[in-house]
Amino acid sequence: MSLGEAFCVVCGSSDPLTSNRLCESCFRERVTLSELSATIQGVRCPKCSVVLYSGRWVSIPDEELHHGVVQQELAVDERASGLEVGIHAEPVDERNTRLNVQAVGVIDGLEFSDEHTTMLQLSNGICPSCSRRAGNYYESTVQLRSSGRRLSEDELTALRETLDSVISEMEPNPMFFINYEGAVSGGWDVVLGSKALARAWGRYLTKRYGSSTKESNTVVGRKDGEEITRLTVLYRKPAFDIGDIIHFRRADWVVAGWQKDGALLHALDRRERTGASWRDLEKSKVRARVKDHLNVDLLNRDSSGGEFLDPRDWQVRTVSLPFDDDGSNMSLRIALIGDEWVALPDVRRNPGGDADE
Fold first, then answer.
1. Distance in angstroms (rounded) separating the CA atoms of residues 214 and 83
2. Contact yes or no for 274/265 (Cβ under 8 A)
3. What is the pTM of this model?
C-alpha cells in the first residue's frame, strides 16, 4: 500500500472499497441483508377460517397469506435494492406452518443472499362477523314484495340471486352476512348484518327490475350518546318486466325500459313512446308476458300479413304485420293477447316518436 492510497478502515486492505471505506470482506461481515424472527404469530377464526391480516379480517389463500406475513416481518437493510423473496411452505399441522425463506438483493453494488426459517403460528380468535352472528346481531332487513300480486317462486329466486351478485361486486366486508331469511306473507325477508349492503342491494334491484325502494329506521337503543337504529328497505317489484305488453291509457304498450321514477313505454301499433310514473302504472294490466312471446318463421307473406303455424294446434294462422315491418322479413316475434296473435314491433329499432308525457 502506497502513501495516499485508499484502504479499508478495518483491516487496512487496499482491495476495492465500498462507499463507507470497507473492503468487500469486512463489509459482508458487518452488513446483513435481512432478518426474520423465528416465529410469526397470526389469528384465524375457527368458524369461518378468515384471518386477521393487516388489521382486517379477510379470506385469503394460504400462499398469499404466507407472502404477506413474511413481507411484514422481514427486516431489510434500507440500502438494499432489487430485493427478491422466495418462500417454501411446509405445513406442520392445522395451526402451524414452517416457512423457508430466501432473500436476494444488492447493497452497495454487492449481491447478498440470506436464508431464514420461521414458524407461522395461527391461534384461534372469533372474528366480529361470527361473534355478531352468534349474538343474533343485525342492522337491516330487506323486504321483497310485488305491486298488487304475489311474487312467483321463479321471481323470488331471481331476486334473491341478485344479492350474491351484489356481494361479489363489492369490496369484501365481514359484516356482509345474512342473519336470517325466509318466506313471509306476500314475499321474502332477508335480515342482513350491514346497512350499506341493504342499500346497495336496493339500488341494484331498482336498476335491474324497476320500481323504487322505501326506507324506514327503528331506534333500538343508544350507545355513547347516539341512537342505534335498524334499517328496513322495502322493494316492490313491478307487476311487469321489460318486454311485457301492458294495457295502459286505453292502449297496449311494450315496456321498453326503466326510468328513475317509472317506465318507458312503446306503443304496440304505432311509432310512439311515452314515460309513465309508478303511481300511474299501478292500474295497468299485463296482457302478455315476455317469457310467453314466440319467434316464428312465416310460411307466406304479403304487404299486410303473414302466415305461420300456430304452436298450440299446428294450424295455419294469419297475423297482421307490425307497423315497422321492412317488407322482407320472414320471421316475426308474436304474442297471444286475449285469443288473438299479435306481431310485435322491434322497439329497439324505434327509439323515436312523439312522447306523450
1. 55
2. yes
3. 0.62
